[in-house]
Amino acid sequence: MAANVGIPPAVTDESAAYWAAAAEGRLLVEHCGACGAESFPPYGICRSCRGRATAPVEVTGRGVVYSLTVNHQRWMPGLEVPYALVLVEFPDHPGVRVFGRLRGCEPEEAAIGMAVDVGFEPGPGGCAIPSFVAVAASPDHGPGSGPAVPGAV
Amino acid sequence: MGADLFERRAVISGVGQSAIGRQVDRSGFQLTLDAVLAAIADAGLTVDDIDGLAMFPGGGKANLPGYANGNLYEVQDALRITTRWRQGVVEGMCMPFHGPAMAVATGQARHAVIWRTVKEGSAARNAGGRPAYGSTNPMAEGPLAWLLPVGALSPVCQVAPYAARYMHEYGATREQLAWIPVTQRAHAALNPDAVYRTPLSVDDYLSARMISTPICLYDCDVPADGATAIVVSAAETAPDLRAPVAIEAMAGVVDGRPSWEQWEDMGRVGYATAAALWERTDLRPADVDVAQLYDGFTIECVWWLEAMGFCKPGEAGAFVEGGSRIALGGELPLNTWGGQLSGGRLHAAFGHVAEAVRQVRGEAGARQVPGARVAAVTNVGGYEAGAALLTTWSG
Ligand SMILES: [Zn+2]
């Protein structure tokens, strides 16, 4: 898969674990050892209790689209359009919302409330970007499919 | 109420603008000087009266090509003045005149000028189209790291999910919201300085190309070239001023998560700022004669119409439908200069403030709202938000 055109992230001390895991197809958020709340993006402090004992935790469950847009404008040379961008929340991970692309369905089929699985795909500058997978179209959930493998890059 | 509010110790004394257009063949620095000198003259002051300088955004902050404020010290040097107060901010602007008002209210300056200069029209032309936000930097830093890599490459993509969520929750339609850009275009026809003045119809709107759903071309403000300057003076200098305008109240609250994609409740924006504004005044929404509500995108006007209490939450679609309420002659004439959607993206409410000042002075020409004494003006929306009421000076 050709890498998506975009502007690459400046990786910081706080976000390094997130981007490293993304390259492996895993979605990390920040988990609080004191109260158990989860925060995103990672700041090294719990946004619930302000505890500093945080550690990365992987989000594997199914997400729900909170809102979305389908971009039609070629903002940069080589940008392939249209594509859907979705804001995804996770019933099992309150407080976490992640922005990413959507695949597995036509952009026009993206809808608020639709279920998605975690996934990634190649992004700019060698990074991997969230690319959620529409559940209805996900082969991981077809008849006789094996266990869900969250988004190989 | 409010005798001890700092903003009551400040007045807006002058507004000035350079030539404004899709492209103006003049450097950003010259546009800045044009606007600053015009604003000082408009105030009835001389350059030597100015002892405070500010610009938005501050130095070095340019996420888009065409941010053309220049350097504050070069402007001071060119004007050959002495300043006692200077400011360039990115965060915390609230309204453009917030910092200058604090400066003159606390005696740090007597007459402060703030400007905003854009050459975004020329930058878009030179790039062959509106460029990606953040494309002035090789890497996406800070909050942009969660937006630009995934392909949310423009404020359009960042704001569009708010519009989608709003329409989903309330059932507002594009046919209804079209009346905001359509009505503002009719207002722009009466403003000789507006960028786009030819009539726009609802059909034109509905057949326009999508930029990022549900935001179409006419929901987006127009990249433009131009500068706006605002002079803010200590209220006690009013006898020296040509036509001061009172700042009845202002507020800028950042509640929710200060992030485009993390803002919790995308159907509702600006409520905390509006509530704080109304706490600082005895005026009520029904007292507002004319509204200059920030319109980087159509949906931002929707937020402000509802947050400010001009209509109930979820009812902006019905409120604007048909255009009669928000047109000149309606109960709440909206963005009488055309707004950024037709007047040009002068950015950060500088154009809105200039128009509000002209309206409450009775100097808005063919688009004057008869007898306007109270203008509401708002800035941005989303996590950074500002709102103010400007009123006719009564001494
Ligand atoms: Zn905690």
From TrEMBL, chain B:
Residues forming coiled coils: none
InterPro entries attached to this UniProt entry: Thiolase, Thiolase-like, Thiolase_C_2
Domain (Thiolase C-terminal) ranges: 276-385
GO MF entry, a single one: acyltransferase activity, transferring groups other than amino-acyl groups
Superkingdom, taxonomy of origin: Bacteria
SUPFAM superfamilies cross-referenced by the UniProt entry: Thiolase-like
Cross-referenced PANTHER family: ACETYL-COA C-ACETYLTRANSFERASE (PTHR42870), NON-SPECIFIC LIPID-TRANSFER PROTEIN-LIKE 2 (PTHR42870:SF1)
Name recorded for this polypeptide: DitF protein
Organism of derivation: Parafrankia colletiae
